[in-house]
Design goal:
16 helices, binds zinc ion, alpha/beta, binds adenine, TIM Barrel, single chain
C-alpha cells in the first residue's frame, strides 16, 4: 500500500533483530525432511507459539538444522535482503551461539559463515550489518566470560557488540552474574546491548544499566512501570530497541493501545522500532512503523524522529550514520 511505501522511504536502521528469527517455514520444512527429522507441528502452524519460553525452545530446534556454512550464509544474506526491502540502510543483528547445536565449540567458523553471507549481500548492494553476539540468560558467569574472551581473541570486524537475551523469568536476576564479562567486553571496545524489561520488570532494566553498562536496551518497555527509571533513561538518553509486534505475539501486552512505546517516546526516552524475530513472529520493519502510525496517530515528524533515533542508536560507524539522514 501507499502507507507502507511511505514507511519504507524513511531513512532508518534496525537495531533489534535475531538471526534465529529469520528462518522461512518452507526452508525449515525442507531441511527437516532432508535430515529425516519430523516437524514439531504441521507446517501451517509451525510458527504458533504459546509465549517466550515455547518460542525459545523452538529456536533450538530450528537452529539445529542450520548445520552447514552455506545455510548460515543463506540466512545472513536473506536478512540483509529483508532489510533492503524494508528501506533500512543498516542493522545490528543478534545471534546467540547456544541455540546452534552444530556449531558449538566452533564460534570463529560460525562468525565466518555468517560474515560470508553479509559480504555477499553488500557486494550485491544490500545494506551493511553488524553482529551482536549474545549470551543466554541461563548461562553461567564463566560461560559468559569465556564467550567474551573468544570474541576478544577473534577481533572479527563484523562483531560490534556483546548481547544478552533469553528468558529473564526463568533465569532470575542475571545482572550480577554477567557483570564481569560485560565490563571486560566494554573495556575491549565492544558495545553492549541487553534484553531487559520484556520477561523482567523494571529491575531488569536497572541492572542492565548499572551492572552491565548497557549502551542500549532490547525491549525495555516495562521500564514504564517505574517513573524514576524512565527519568534515568531520559537523562542518559539510553535508547530502547522496541518490538511492538513481538510483544503482542509473545503476550507481553494484549494490544498496541496497552503498549507503552508511545508513552515512553512522549516522556523523552529514545525509542526505535524493530522486528525482533521477523519471520517467526510475522513482523516487517515498515509494518512496525505503519502499525504505530495507525495506533498512535504519528505524523511525519514523529515517524522521521523515531527513524532517526534508530540510526543514532545503532552501532554503525559514523560514515554509515551520516549516509542515513
Ligand atoms: N531471543 C530471540 N528473541 C528473543 C526475545 N524476544 N526475548 C529474549 N530472547 C530472544
Ligand atoms: Zn530480542
Amino acid at each position: 500500500t501507499e502507507q507502507l511505501a511511505r514507511m519504507r522511504a524513511l531513512p532508518k536502521a534496525e537495531v533489534h533483530a535475531h538471526l534465529e528469527g529469520c528462518f522461512e517455514p518452507h526452508v525449515l520444512a525442507q531441511w527437516a525432511q532432508e535430515a529425516g527429522i519430523a516437524l514439531p507441528r504441521p507446517q501451517e502452524r509451525l510458527f504458533e507459539f504459546a509465549g517466550l519460553a515455547d518460542f525459545l525452545h523452538f529456536l533450538d530446534w530450528a537452529c539445529g538444522l542450520a548445520n552447514t556454512r552455506d545455510r548460515l550464509a543463506q540466512l545472513s544474506y536473506g536478512y540483509a535482503k529483508r532489510l533492503a526491502d524494508s528501506g533500512a540502510g543498516y542493522a545490528d543483528v543478534i545471534f546467540n551461539p547456544t541455540h546452534w547445536d552444530a556449531w558449538h565449540g566452533r564460534l570463529p567458523a560460525m562468525v565466518d559463515a555468517l560474515d560470508a553471507g553479509f559480504k555477499a549481500a553488500e557486494h550485491d548492494g544490500l545494506p551493511p550489518v553488524g553482529l551482536c553476539v549474545s549470551v543466554l540468560r541461563t548461562q553461567t558467569g564463566d560461560a559468559a566470560a569465556e564467550l567474551v574472551d573468544q570474541l576478544i581473541a577473534m577481533r572479527h570486524p563484523r562483531v560490534v557488540a556483546l548481547s544478552v537475551d533469553g528468558n529473564e523469568a526463568t533465569a532470575g536476576r542475571t545482572g550480577p552474574r554477567f557483570a564481569d564479562a560485560f565490563a571486560k567486553a566494554g573495556a575491549a571496545g565492544l558495545r553492549r546491548t541487553v534484553h531487559a524489561g520484556e520477561s523482567s520488570g523494571p529491575e531488569g532494566v536497572w541492572d542492565a544499566i548499572h551492572l552491565l553498562g548497557a549502551d542500549r536496551i532490547d525491549h525495555g518497555v516495562r521500564a514504564i512501570e517505574d517513573p524514576a527509571l524512565v527519568a534515568l533513561l531520559v537523562e542518559r538518553q539510553i535508547p530502547l530497541g522496541v518490538c511492538p509486534t513481538s510483544n503482542l505475539v509473545l503476550r507481553v501486552y494484549p494490544s498496541l493501545q496497552d503498549h507503552p512505546v508511545d508513552r515512553l517516546r512522549l516522556a523523552g526516552v529514545p525509542v526505535s522500532l524493530n522486528t525482533d524475530d521477523p519471520v517467526l513472529l510475522g513482523a516487517s520493519l515498515e509494518g512496525e512503523y505503519a502499525q504505530c502510525q495507525a495506533a498512535y496517530g504519528w505524523n511525519d515528524d514523529v515517524l522521521r524522529a523515531v527513524a532517526q533515533t534508530s540510526v543514532d542508536a545503532s552501532f554503525a560507524n559514523p560514515d554509515i550514520k551520516r549516509g542515513l539522514r
